[in-house]
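TL;DR need structure tokens for one chain.
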Amino acid sequence: MTTTSTAGAAAPRAEFWDLTYVTGPLVFLKNGGRFPSGAILDLTLASGEVRQGQVLEASTSHAVVQVLQGTQGVDVKGASVSLKEESAAIGVSTSLLGRRFNGTGVPIDGLPPAVVDKQLNINGSPLNPVAREKPSDFIETGVSAIDGFNTLVRGQKLPIFFGSGMPANEVANLIVQQARTRGDSEQFVVVFGAMGITEREANYFMRAFDEGGQGGRVVAFINKANDPAIERLFTPRCALTVAEYLAYEHDYQVLVILTDMTSYCEALRQVSSAREEIPGRRGYPGYMYTDLSTIYERAGRIKGQKGSVTQMPMLTMPDDDITHPIPDLTGYITEGQIVLSRALHRQGVFPPVDVIPCLSRLMNNGIGEGRTRADHRQVANQLYAAYAQGRDVRKLMTIIGEDALSDLDKKYLQFSTRFEREMIGQGWMRRTIDETLDWGWKLLSLLPRGELTRIDTEFVDKHHRPEEPVARATDDTDEAVL
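>> reply
TL;DR here they are.
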């Protein structure tokens, strides 16, 4: 049954009363050919309450609509739907900087709605692969374990993997506060998207952004755990749409941090289950790889454009399993990974980044002379090798005892311990890339010159000073001072 209604001077909108049934966050309608796929509908309940939904699937026989505010209290006999928008869109402008929104772009900071320049489809515009510029140029996060060994470059997508209960929120906040372009010569902003976080975590982020002095350059989209799970499917797309607008129309260098993508994937699985789709690995939908790619592939640079969109998605590894479908598929799409270590976290190391399984596939595009420093690649290689050997010596020591170790083995053991405490465990102190590399040379000075086989002689002659002691951490936060 169809009727029409008017509101003031607004044009009449057709209302349809042919809802068939409700399951989970979805409602089903007859005759889906009336609405385009992706359209936004108004769902009016018998009580007069209006909720919004998006058409997931439309055919001549039926339409599947996901309801953003949830389906609790929806009675198919007393509810109607009407077309609101042809597609999901968000208003964008530079006035969004410094603002806080929920997962669909509604202000939650107590301020009135932002004045917007235009409305953009949250699914983004198709990007010709030929128009993509190769990711390059260094982004300084201020974190030695990232800048020195797994460098982030503009236009890259570099995820962070962590286990449950680890300080991932603190690491995210650390990067938000400290990240910038080399020399601060360009406009740098952060778009932050949080999905499924608790009230305490949401308060932590909003307070930390403002108290850290960087709140004015952050646009935050926050979906809380008690918000509808379906809203989590919109959060990263809203965040990325704003990021693309700032980057490609206003030449900002934009870093997008999305946490927690595991919550996003759980919402995706919930919708798939409600649609009674055939599940894939561990119950996740078979198209999860394709869906994640529509988010991750929106990072990049465009030829002729000064701005860039760089992504650092963060996700929980269930049971610390890096082969779980979510980190596994994310690793296929993205260009490396940063892995947080539970063992380092238990030792009090912050940020607890385990550099051995970490990787940045585009690191060489953003380092070297003219970008960071000429000795960067070789110093990173030597530190990696020395730390890996030190960890092997530590395992050996548990078998044969420390007294049975050679003098060289003991030096590598000392190196690995100090590397974890002083290079990785920098605390909340920000380090420039020069300070990181200088600190690396101080640690390498613990080893004999003959062990530095991965560094050119000219750099060894310039920087290797075995007589210089390595400074110890000075307080309980393990913050070391050069």
